[in-house]
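Suppose you are handed only these lines of text.
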Amino acid sequence: MYPLIRSLLFRLDPETSHDLALRLFALASRLSNTGKPPQATAEPDQSPPVMGIRFPNPIGLAAGLDKQGTARDIFRRLGFGFVEIGTVTPKPQPGNPKPRMFRLKEHQALINRMGFNSVGLEQFRKNLAATSANIITGINIGKNAATPVNEAINDYLACLREVYTPADYIAINISSPNTEGLRQFQDRELLDVLLAGLNQERERLSDKTGNRKPLVIKVAPDLNRLQVNAIAALIRTHSIDGIIATNTTVSRPGIENHPLSIQTGGLSGVPLKQPSTQIIKLLHDNLQDEVPIIGVGGIHNLESALEKFEAGARLIQLYTGLIYQGPTLVKQILDVTGKIHQS
Ligand SMILES: Cc1cc2nc3c(=O)[nH]c(=O)nc-3n(C[C@H](O)[C@H](O)[C@H](O)COP(=O)(O)O)c2cc1C
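From them, the structure of the protein bound to flavin mononucleotide can be written out as follows.
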């Protein structure tokens, strides 16, 4: 069924078809709803917790598909164990001018320069409240494009305060390539200040609410070993609970000759698989199993999902693979990865 839907969707421009796909996933999930979402073989409470959370299965939806927090309830029915919504910015902003998403079908890849099109915190919270909290929900936070880097910590703090209660975990996005200056937060000095501030605020919110929520950071694939080690050290120093590896890449591995490869933006999908796995390995060499890694980048079948676990990921996320393969991708990898998750 999905190949047919996809061939219709792919006749539209990528962003329109993307918006439509969100609605079709909702429809498909209702049609195929047997009353129970697909489950890993074990009951949720038999699997070991990750970041203190018992995930029903290790497959999550990556940030950026449900940016405005309007659709999370459909993803449980598609089989996902968790969703990450956002990136949300404090104030509403339109993102970059269109076109800003490009499909490289031959490579099962996308290039996007969305630039955090966001309804802003206030509307985001309303959207979230209108959906059912039937799935573990990470909320991914960022800064407004107009906020200078030296004031950006205030944007992250504002987001953290607003999403703290509805989130099961909070993802600090310091790796999207389409917001000027954002990736500078991966540098040691800036990251140190940012994580110290966010951890302090988290402790305050934790005391106030009696509920300590995990903080995770999301990093780029465009990092070398020294940078990865510096980030890993700061994760330990500031009690960060997890790391998502990786966001999209600004490099163009294996697609250099594609006419769309010159488009500015982050590349996702199959060409990102190796660079992302490499970062997971480097992180795991350093952090071992002390800090859980959420692996994302180019997962498009069972084998590529297993590759992420073998590299050291405890959980995985999908985005571009879901666009190309459809919801059956989740079901395809659920049986096997569900068993890994329990061990
Ligand atoms: C169109 C698009 C929009 C995205 N928006 C976000 C975002 O807002 N925040 C974020 O952290 N990652 C965002 N991502 C990155 C994905 O969450 C993911 O890290 C990346 O696409 C690699 O996974 P994949 O190869 O499975 O797509 C976006 C990706 C795409 C393709």
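What can we learn from it? The chain has eleven helices and eleven strands. Residues 40-44 have pLDDT under 50 and may be disordered.
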